[in-house]
What does this fold into?
Amino acid sequence: MLEISRLQHLTKARVQIEKLGQEGADGFGTGAGGRLIILAGPREAVRDAAVQAAAMLGQAGAPRVGKGPQVHCSCGEVFTEDAAFCKKCGEKRPQAAPRGRKARSVSPVASGHPGALSTAAATARPGTSDSQTQLLKALLAGPMPQLSRLELLFPADFVRLCLESGSHLQTVTLRSGSHVELSPPGPESMRMVTVNGTMLGNTMAVLQLQELLLQYQR
It folds into this structure.
């Protein structure tokens, strides 16, 4: 569960949950029946809210284990069993491997399970000051919140000049751990960019793509 009031208090961003109808996120049924997380506010606040929202969703989707020892925050507060952040100061919960077991790393989405992925769509609008919010609306909490598939529309010139040319696309993939695919070029003014991976990895990929788009628009 995403604790909206606590997320807004910690980041000062505006957070809204929007339930999708049969028309989905794009009017064609994409993500029908799911929910969109809409973030708005100053860039740094939106960035922090996106990261913390992804962490909360990942925590909610992780398999539960037996109750372990109490975990204390540096401020002295005790983390509740499922809390990803301290309710008093907002500090992130320290990650520790269970005793006698190796820590399990979270890898990008494995191929062969496309049905388990959540789907959402967002459109980047050139010249729009709220373009970062448009992109972050693609954060969709589906049946497996720790995994997601994002379909983003970008200007065709931006995709050709900034993503197909040079090493920007490879850099986004390496830094986020998500798999990024570009649709084939065509006569349309917009091109689809598909991002597959964990919620947190996809959030990082979206933020990096947004930064590249802002640089391109200057």
